[in-house]
């Protein structure tokens, strides 16, 4: 049993049960065989079975033919799948079929009905190739973990994002500034996979990657955590600016239509935000975990949502929240100029902004500030703000 478990594993995809049985008979004892009757089933097997070392496939099959299977394998984001040797079962000497298979990345051909010697020799050669490619892929993975850039996406690696986030959190504490994390999650992932397959989801991920990457600042850090999820670190940005950016991304996707094989595809995302200052988070893990949890809550609530510390974010709510935050500096300028009347009209908004600071002062200095009474005033005013347009806030 243990010896059999160590045998190289070959996936045989052919809609003929007789062909599959004949191949299994020839290679039994030297290879472990997994059989599938069509290309779609073979593709699904590849995604869930990491033990497969080689694919032996027919061309003419239902649901997904050999060409389609080969194309998906070579386009996979999974390194172990993308580099698998693929051998084509050829029923005749059609040169055009061979040329097409080679252009899609086939590694070799075996004629149906050929002898067992040819079959075993080809498979042994290809398995050795697979082992070499696996070792190369592992080396590349080790290098990418040490590099700040993921060679597959061109974005920052997850490890670099974590490192950078810890640096920026420390800097934010020293400079009394904020840092915001955004997690962007693709909505309705399961229906997209079921309807279009993993290949199209990867194409959508690449589109999102380019769109997000073209809209961030040089000091921001963006990484792709999976085919359907991105994380963005924005130092020196407050929660209002982060929410404004998230709303613009959401709106941009609402107007975006992608085309695949003449079919129009619309997608949406849910975006979760967490702020080191507003959420009082002091670690990278807490910051990213909070943003991830909020993004997933947006997906669960129907998608196409931006979720922050107070729940779903809308443009109107953002304007009300932005107004008092931006009025403190203006109020101080008015007071320096002796314009107290201008400040008096903004007192409710200023109070909503200053209550968290006053709470902190009271907790540290115990100077008898009437925090409960101030909160009652804040609740009665409802945080009225002016008509500030935050849609031009850049991140």
Provide key terms for this protein.
Alpha-Beta Plaits; 16 helices; 395 residues; elongated; 3 domains; 53% helix; six-stranded mixed β-sheet; alpha/beta; Rossmann fold; five-stranded parallel β-sheet; disordered C terminus
Please outline what is shown here.
The chain is of the alpha/beta class and 395 residues long. The chain has 16 helices and 13 strands. The strands form three sheets. Strands 7-8-6-11-12-13 form a six-stranded mixed sheet, with helices on both faces.
Question: Secondary-structure map with pairings?
Answer:
Elements: H1 2-5, E1 9-13, H2 17-27, E2 32-36, H3 39-48, E3 52-58, H4 66-74, H5 79-82, E4 86-90, H6 95-103, E5 108-111, H7 116-146, H8 158-175, E6 179-186, H9 189-196, H10 198-213, E7 221-226, E8 229-235, H11 239-254, E9 258-260, E10 263-265, E11 269-275, H12 284-300, E12 306-308, E13 311-312, H13 315-336, H14 340-344, H15 347-365, H16 371-381
Parallel strand pairs: 1-2, 1-3, 3-4, 4-5, 11-12
Antiparallel strand pairs: 6-8, 6-11, 7-8, 9-10, 12-13
Helix pairs in contact: 3-4, 9-10, 11-13, 13-15, 15-16
Describe this structure in words.
The longest helix is centred in the N-terminal third of the chain and has 31 residues. Strand 11, helix 12 and strand 12 form a beta-alpha-beta unit. The C terminus is likely disordered. About 55% of the residues lie in helices and about 15% in strands. By secondary structure, the protein is α/β, with parallel strands linked by helices. Strands 7-8-6-11-12-13 form a six-stranded mixed sheet, with helices on both faces. The chain has a five-stranded parallel sheet with strand order 2-1-3-4-5, with helices on both faces. Helix 11 packs antiparallel against helix 13, helix 13 crosses helix 15 and helix 15 runs antiparallel to helix 16. The protein has three domains: about 140 residues, Rossmann fold; about 170 residues, Reverse transcriptase/Diguanylate cyclase domain (Alpha-Beta Plaits, 2-Layer Sandwich); about 60 residues, no CATH class.
